[in-house]
Amino acid sequence: MVLEQGALSGKYSPEHPLPAGSNRAEIYNGMLPQLTVLTDKLATIGRRQGAAAPDVATAWAIAKGTTPIIGVTKPNHIDGLTRAAGMTLSNEDIAELEAIADATNVNTRGWWEQEM
Description:
This protein has helices at about 25-30, 30-50, 55-65, 75-85, 90-105. By secondary structure, it is mostly helical. It has one domain. Helix 2 crosses helix 3 (about 55-65). The longest helix has 18 residues, at about 30-50. The chain is globular and about 35 Å long.
């Protein structure tokens, strides 16, 4: 899940958590404080490239050699996917994202997902 059920979209934060009562909220709201540094970095890279945090997260997944499957629920999500497909992240950006992600100590990988 490239956007971790929206937790990496930049839309949610400890101050603006996922909607209460949902499975996503139960899983991710407690992690949002740990993810703030990562979502902030995604947004910073996005601003430099004229993109949004979700676009960068998708570009990051592509840079890692994956073919992300994104569940689009709004027409403007397609625009973000187009931006992501056209982005080139620097080796420095990728290394920094990887280091920040590792430092969060958050692992939501399902039993079926292989480590990359």
